[in-house]
Design a protein that fits this description.
Blueprint lengths: L3 H28 L6 H5 L4 H14 L24 H11 L4 H26 L3 H9 L5 H9 L3 H16 L3 H14 L7 H6 L3 H21 L1 H12 L9 H4 L7 H12 L8 H20 L5 H15 L12 H10 L4 H12 L4 H7 L18 H28 L7
Helix pairs in contact: 1-6, 1-7, 3-4, 5-6, 5-8, 6-17, 8-9, 8-16, 8-17, 9-11, 11-12, 14-20, 15-16, 15-20, 16-17, 16-20, 17-18, 18-20
Length: 419
């Protein structure tokens, strides 16, 4: 027979279990036993962090922050730097006071601190403490966070800043919400997707602060290096209009957004195509954005639904979504679980599907016929077609379901009022 105390304590027990799971994941940074993902299989630890670190070295030595690769001896390995200049001189340059390896571990510790703050903010979102504990637990029991730590990424900083923005607005503290939103814009510009929500809520101060921060903190660098503006744009947005030569260039097994799922389906039926037709991509992106805009300005949604709607929109319209990027879905899931009983079950189901690892490890181990000399080719080329589609559906389809429910709720069922 269960006692009342058991029913009251289960959220705390769930939170403790989530923290324990996170400790296990954290320890795997040394042991590697949790390396079940595309990124851990294909890339060495810290590669994304070193991509930012090298920009700080370039800035300090008078080179373009978008030069790549870095001179020998700067970092062990890296990708091209894709962030705005602000990240180079506000984050990367100070971290150059330490060696690359030590700076990486400092950033891991910083992410852990951000995790604690995010869990606290998620807990405070919920009117009921029980669901506050669950909303907080979700941040710890989330495998994309392991990849965030492994790669040394900066997406979790975005997740915290976007959650902080939403928390302040939902808590009727709009006068200070401008700060975290403006900060998020100069780290990664994808938080501009919250602009329609702030516009609908008439948050003029936040909108102005974001625009000013973008210009003031980045324009001087581009003014001194005008060619770098084009390089920044091409690195981040050229995928939208460039047609790849063949499937070897268009298919990336690390890409897990809606666009990659659509590509996997299209190529399954037209294996001679190089990529998804441009017109189809355009229709999907414009369709999703149009529905979200309509739901925002013509629907009757409360701000919590609108924040979750636009936070999830990123994964459906951006052309390059990696598994660690899904930490930026956590604010949307936490908001819905904490504050929306009507959508809570769906949000929890989506959380479970996105929190679990993709089937990458299973498919590589049991289905792949990849020869040893094909390391530079996307692993999924050596899987059955159904496995390729299933793999790309594993994250994107659950998010699409959540987004659809949020859009439908925005238009049909909500009542417009201040939170």
């Amino acid at each position: 027979m269960r006692h009342a105390g058991d029913r009251e304590n289960w959220p705390r027990i769930a939170f403790a279990g989530a923290v324990a799971l996170h400790v296990v994941m954290l320890a795997s940074l040394w042991g590697g036993y949790f390396d079940l993902f595309h990124d851990t299989d294909r890339y060495p630890r810290g590669i994304d962090f070193y991509s930012v670190y090298q920009a700080g070295d370039a800035l300090l030595h008078g080179r373009s922050i978008y030069d790549w690769p870095a001179p020998p001896g700067v970092v062990p390995i890296s990708f091209p730097f894709r962030y705005l200049p602000f990240v180079a001189y506000a984050i990367a340059a100070p971290l150059n006071a330490f060696s690359p390896e030590r700076a990486y571990w400092i950033w891991v510790v910083a992410i852990e601190g951000m995790l604690a703050v995010s869990a606290r903010l998620a807990y405070r979102l919920a009117p009921e403490p029980a669901w506050g504990w669950i909303a907080a637990a979700m941040w710890f029991a989330f495998t994309p966070l392991y990849l965030e730590l492994y790669m040394g990424q900066f997406s979790f900083l975005m997740a915290l800043l976007m959650l902080w923005t939403a928390t302040l607005v939902l808590g009727a503290r709009e006068n200070v919400a401008a700060a975290p939103w403006a900060a998020s814009l100069v780290v990664k510009t994808n938080s501009a997707l919250l602009g329609p929500v702030l516009l609908r809520l008439r948050q003029w101060r936040a909108l102005a602060a974001g625009a000013i921060a973008l210009v003031v903190l980045n324009a001087p660098y581009f003014a001194f290096r005008p060619g770098d503006g084009r390089r920044f744009w091409d690195i981040n947005f050229s995928d939208y209009w460039e047609t790849p030569e063949n499937q070897l260039r268009s298919v990336n097994s690390g890409d897990l957004g809606l666009s990659s799922f659509v590509r996997s389906v299209w190529l399954a039926f037209d294996d001679g195509a190089a990529d998804t037709p441009g017109w189809l991509t355009l229709v999907i992106v414009l369709g999703i954005l149009s529905i979200a805009v309509f739901a925002t300005f013509r629907g009757r949604a409360r701000p919590d639904v609108l924040f979750a709607l636009w936070l999830s929109t990123y994964f459906l319209v951006y052309s390059d979504v990696w598994e660690h990027h899904y930490v930026m879905l956590l604010p949307a899931l936490a908001i819905v679980v904490a504050r929306r009983p009507d959508l809570r079950i769906l949000a929890l189901a989506v959380f479970v599907m996105v929190a679990l690892p993709t089937p990458y490890w299973l498919f590589e181990r049991f289905l792949s016929d990849r020869p040893p000399d094909a390391r530079l080719v996307a692993p999924e080329f050596f899987w059955p077609l159904w496995a390729r589609i299933t793999y790309h559906a594993s994250k994107a389809v659950p998010v699409l379901l959540l987004w659809g429910a949020l859009a439908q709720t925005s238009v049909a069922h909500d009542v417009s009022r201040r939170p």
